[in-house]
Structures are given as C-alpha cells and as structure tokens.
Design brief:
Elements lengths: L1 H6 L3 H17 L3 H17 L3 H18 L5 H15 L3 H8 L12 H13 L3 H15 L5 H17 L3 H13 L7 H15 L3 H4 L8
Helix pairs in contact: 2-3, 3-4, 3-5, 4-5, 5-6, 5-7, 6-7, 7-8, 7-9, 8-9, 9-10, 9-11, 10-11
C-alpha cells in the first residue's frame, strides 16, 4: 500500500501508511519490516522535498543495518534511497559510492530502481553518452512488461541524455515519444519528467530550450 501511494504521488498517505507499518513491526519485534517501512517513509519525504527529514530517517536505518546486521533487501533499498538523496544534495561522489557498493546489490541489470538512480546520477555527472546507454538498456528490458509509467520515465530521461549530448533530433524524438504515451493513470513522477523533457526538447527552438536538469528530475 505504501509503494502504491508513492507511485500515485500521495505523499501524505504514504507517510501515514509507512508510520503505521513501522509501529506494527516494532511492536512485533520485526526489525527488517520496521527498517523497510522507514525507508519507504524516507522516500516519501524525499518526494515531498523534505530532505532533512529523509536524511535523518536514512541515518537511523543505517545504524539499524549495522547494529542488527539486517538483510532481506534492506541494504539495497537503503543504498538506492541514499544515493538519490546524495545526488539531489550535490554529493555526487557519495551517490556514486552507494551505487558501486556491489555487496548490497544482486543482479542490477533488471533492477529498475537501481537503473533509474544510476541514470539520474549519470545525468547529474554530465556523463550523457553513458546515461543514454543505460536508458536504452533499461527500456529494452521494460518493453513488453506492461509498466507504461516506467517506460515514460526512462524515455523522458533518455531524451535529456540525447539532448545534453548534442543529439537534438534524437532528443526531440524521445521527448515526443514520452509525451505521447502520457495517460490519465500515468504516475505523477513520470508525468512531471516527461513534460519537463518535452519543454526542453520537443518544441523549437531546441537550443534555446536547453537548460541543466534540476536535481529531482
């Protein structure tokens, strides 16, 4: 339910549900579920741009991981959330370190959350050619999976990678493709990213529309 609320952009509801799950898990002594709920709450605060609150929760979870040797996907989820926060705060080396912590990740080739975090970091690092390759590979395994919102998000980010690399025709094509896929049920973050890329690349003049992406995009 928390994940669904996050996808639908219902930040307050996601926080409330995460806190309830956290309390239930704590009372039952389930440290893994408690930590997972805290990470979901941190993600909700991140989307709501409460970066200080997000950082405080992630610091608390890090202590729990170290002290209780938590596993069961908790370290992976923490790494991705912390990488996204570090990227937005301009701490790109820290974000890269999180995503390079191979002991906390399994097969990342089909890990959508990991690949999007990596893609956004590469864009922030101005590694546009590498970002385009990551986006293209991510789209390849998303195709046919039925997650249109995910495809829209990655296609929009691909348009930014093309555009900032100087491939303006490709950027326009990808931005138009992302915008054309928008539906009433498209997840808010995918919609925002698609509309932002369209504003940059889909309408002429392309060069005049170009600007550096904001950290949360």
């Amino acid at each position: 339910m928390v994940e669904l609320a996050l996808v639908e952009g219902e930040i307050d509801r996601a926080v409330t549900l995460a806190e309830q799950t956290e309390r239930d898990a704590h009372s039952g002594g389930d440290r893994v579920t408690e930590a997972a709920a805290q990470i979901l709450k941190a993600r909700a605060l991140f989307l709501g741009r409460d970066f200080a609150g997000c950082a405080a929760i992630l610091q608390q979870v890090r202590r729990a991981i170290d002290e209780s040797h938590l596993s069961a996907d908790v370290p992976r989820r923490w790494r991705i959330a912390h990488a996204n926060l570090s990227r937005v705060l301009g701490r790109l080396d820290l974000a890269a370190g999180d995503l390079e912590a191979r002991s906390d990740f399994g097969d990342t080739s089909k890990d959508f959350e990991y690949q999007v975090a990596r893609l956004r970091l590469l864009l922030s690092q101005t590694h546009y050619d590498a970002a385009a390759r990551v986006a293209e590979n991510t789209l390849a395994f998303l195709q046919g999976g039925g997650n249109e919102s995910a495809c829209i998000l990655v296609t929009a980010l691909l348009s930014d990678a093309y555009g900032y690399a100087g491939q303006l025709a490709e950027a326009r094509y990808a931005a138009n493709a992302a915008r054309s896929m928008l539906r009433e049920h498209t997840a808010p973050q995918s919609r925002i990213t698609a509309l932002a890329s369209a504003a940059r690349w889909a309408e002429p003049p392309l060069v005049a529309a170009a600007r550096l992406p904001s950290p949360e995009q």
